[in-house]
Amino acid sequence: MAENYLGIDPSSVATGWGVVDDTGALIDWGVIKPNKRKLNEPQQAAFQYQALDEIIKKHNIKGVICEDQHRGPNTDTFKKLSRISGYVMLLAGQHDIRFEFLHPSSWRKITLGRGNADKDDALKWANETYNLLLTTKHYDIAEGIGIAKAAVVQFTGGSTDGITGNKAG
């Protein structure tokens, strides 16, 4: 039985995610968007936490990689992303599954072959690799899928060569 891995591109607006199995096949993907107009910050955190918990349970996830945060010019954004990353790590601990943070340049090097690849490169890769039709509105999803592919390599020691997978229905 294949093992499934979850990649998460954390965001307070739109957390992208992808699930890839240990053969590289894309199992599922999506984005979690809490309603910022109706939910206060703790409710938004609970919304994302519950959605990620459901994904982990639904797909029997064996490992999670969350994109690591780096301190950019906006301290408030850094704080919010760090909080989201914290409850992703908590979920992994509660489910007793492997967890790692990967810096954007690290997962991009594993998945895309270049650490300096950008969001457009991730989008193009996801569309070509998995025969998707994601647009620039779906950068978060493309990156979540790319992070999930990096999780396969990180947790299984496998190669990215020849892993193409198929779109799952």
Textual characterization of the structure:
With 169 residues, the protein is α/β, with parallel strands linked by helices. 46% of the residues lie in helices and 19% in strands. Strands 3-2-1-4-5 form a 5-stranded mixed beta sheet. The two termini are 19 Å apart. The C terminus is likely disordered.
Quick recap of the structure?
The chain has 169 residues and is an alpha/beta fold.
Global geometry = globular
CA-based gyration radius: 15 Å
Give the overall pLDDT as a whole number.
91
Q: What portion of residues is helical?
A: 40-55%
Major sheet attributes:
5 strands, mixed
Keywords:
169 residues, alpha/beta, 5-stranded mixed beta sheet, disordered C terminus
What is the topology?
Elements: E1 4-9, E2 15-21, E3 26-32, H1 41-58, E4 61-67, H2 75-95, E5 98-102, H3 104-112, H4 119-130, H5 139-156
Parallel strand pairs: 1-4, 4-5
Antiparallel strand pairs: 1-2, 2-3
